[in-house]
Amino acid sequence: MQKLKIKTNYKSEVVDITKEIKEAVIKSGVKSGIVTIFCPHTTANVILFENSDTTLKRDLLSMLKDIVPFKEYSHSNARAHLKASFLRSNLTLIIENADVVLGQWQGIYLIEFDGPRERNVLLKVISD
Q1: Which of 66, 62, 52 is nearest to 12 (CA)?
Q2: How far is it, in rounded angstroms, from Cα 82 to Cα 63?
Q3: Higher pLDDT, 54 or 95
Q4: Which domain holds residue 51?
Q5: What residues form DSSP beta bridges with 126?
Q6: Sheet with 13-16, side-by-side order of all strands
Q7: What is the pLDDT of residue 70?
Q8: d(CA 62, CA 15)
Q9: Which of 42, 48, 61, 69 has fewest C-beta within 10 Å?
Q10: Rounded to whole angstroms, how far apart are CA atoms 14 and 110?
Q11: What is the percent of the chain where pLDDT is above 70?
Q12: How many separate domains does the chain show?
């Protein structure tokens, strides 16, 4: 298992971690198999998302803000937990020719809802 440390800079943000994931796969030495990417936090997630239009990141955060409106909740950072509950904490992707297989417009992202913080992203690379 490999651990990546990702520093976030804002309360809510979408951070492209594609390069770090691809480098970790190369470092593993696996040419063909799968990689599981896990975010062990309840106020952050990992997703596949559009990689060519940066305005979509703002749109995603805006949509989640609309789904979980600002109001008084019982828990101090409930909004961050509630937003994260709509997304995934893990991804499993194919590795071929020592590279992560992604669609033309796909990237791998960490989504922060309670930053700024240093987040962990765990990877398990498995050869077939």
Answers
A1: 62
A2: 13
A3: 95
A4: 2-127
A5: 34
A6: 13-16, 106-112, 44-50
A7: 87
A8: 15
A9: 69
A10: 6
A11: 100
A12: 1
